[in-house]
Design goal:
206 residues; alpha/beta; eight-stranded mixed β-sheet; two-stranded antiparallel sheet; 10 strands; globular
């Protein structure tokens, strides 16, 4: 059993959580599994970038993120195997711009996989207005299937009056219009300082 101290002073008692399929967590180490859009190298990079963002905001392993999905809200711990991480090396490897972008992708991929029927299957082309194509996670062949969807991701290190999660969502909803006549789109915005995530689904018809 491991006790992980969260940034709010509470203690999350984690008893093999990272290996337990019945417990929903944001396990950064699991980016290597069930997400065909990620090579092993990119999965590791996204994990490191997310840890960089959380460390920058002085959050500890096990910090709880508030996830808002339409009318539903839940709180999930973000965890990783600290013994496999060189935090000093990570600090030197990223800057704020790339860390926030890639860190937001890390959390978004895991939220999509854990909270929806989808998973990311491949990177979208420039000009489509989206970041990734999604496929049904029970059938993760690299195809755009009938029950596919789209994903657009954005990250914010510290929300401000001029740079809010809500404003990002509105902008991303407009951005995704080039492929609106294809599949539904998930807009996922991750804010690291609080931390919180908001995921909005826009359904469209061809």
């Amino acid at each position: 059993m491991r006790a992980i101290s969260c940034s709010d002073g509470t203690m999350l008692i984690i008893n093999n959580m990272m290996n337990c399929p019945d417990v929903k967590i944001i396990n950064l180490d699991s980016l290597h599994h069930g997400i065909p859009a990620l090579s092993p190298g990119k999965a590791n990079m996204l994990k490191e970038a997310c840890i960089w963002c959380l460390n920058k905001c002085r959050h500890l392993n096990g910090v709880v993120i508030t996830v808002q999905r339409n009318e539903e809200q839940e709180k999930l711990p973000i965890c990783w195997d600290s013994e496999q991480i060189d935090e000093e090396n990570i600090k030197r490897s990223y800057n704020q711009d790339d860390a926030v972008e890639y860190g937001a992708e890390a959390v978004s991929f895991l939220l999509i996989r854990e909270c929806t029927q989808y998973t990311a299957i491949r990177r979208a082309a420039t000009g489509t207005g989206i970041d990734y194509w999604l496929g049904n996670k029970e059938n993760v062949d690299d195809n755009i299937l009938v029950n596919s969807a789209r994903l657009e991701v954005s990250g914010i290190l510290n929300e401000s009056d001029d740079n809010t999660v809500k404003k990002r969502i509105r902008g991303k909803l407009r951005q995704t219009t080039p492929t609106d006549r294809t599949f539904p789109v998930f807009i996922s915005v991750i804010e690291f300082s609080q931390p919180k995530a908001e995921m909005v689904l826009k359904n469209v018809k061809s």
